[in-house]
Every structure is written in C-alpha cells, then in structure tokens.
What we know:
By secondary structure, the protein is an alpha+beta fold. It has three helices and four strands, in the order αβββαβα. The chain has a single domain (about 10-115), classed as 3-Layer(aba) Sandwich (Endonuclease, Chain A). It is about 45% helix and about 15% strand. It has a four-stranded mixed β-sheet with strand order 1-2-3-4, with helices on both faces.
Amino acid sequence: MSRIRSKNTKPEMLLRSALFRAGFRYRLHLKTLPGKPDLVFARFKTVIFVHGCFWHLHKNCRDGRLPKSNLEYWQQKLINNVERDMVNYSHLNELGWKIITVWECEIQKDLDSIIKKIKSILPG
C-alpha cells in the first residue's frame, strides 16, 4: 500500500494538463483546506477532487466494487474513505467553496466533456 499515490496520479495529471491547455491556472493540494483538494481555483472559490473509482467506491462503476478477498478489511477501509470525503465536503461548503468531483473512469472515457463541464462552472 505504500506505493499507492495520493497525489499526482495519472488521472489527476491528465486533467491538470488539459485544464492548463484550456487556459486555467490553479494551485495544487492546498494543505490549508479540508481534504487537501487536488486542484484549487482560489479566485473562483472552487476546488476539484480527482477520485479513484476503487478508493472512493464510485457507484455504478466497474472499478468501484469491493474486492472478494479480505472483504472485512477493504469494506471498512473504503467506507472510511467515503465518510472522510463527506466530512471534508461539508467543511468546504461551510467555508463557502464550490466542489467538483471528477472520477477516474470519467477522465478515461471522455476528458473533453469534463473540461467543458468545468468551463461551464468556472467563469472565464
């Protein structure tokens, strides 16, 4: 598990480079915000989290399933991840931040539509 990255994952890097090419500038992994969002657009008070489907139990996704072996361990671990996400989202909402969640499978399937969606949410 020590080899599992929490920052600079492949889906995150793909999204970051596409947003940069689209003219967006952002900060990375701001430690002062709850959950250390992957991308922070301070000017627009918006954050983006890039979630792995497995690690954050993406519903209706092939990769968001629990493994069959060691089920008790994985179920508790992954549910804790989801609960932690909800607490962080709640804190960010209280602070007045908008939250965009992008899933790994969405990036793999259609990065262009994600960029369009983000453009529609962020002005300019």
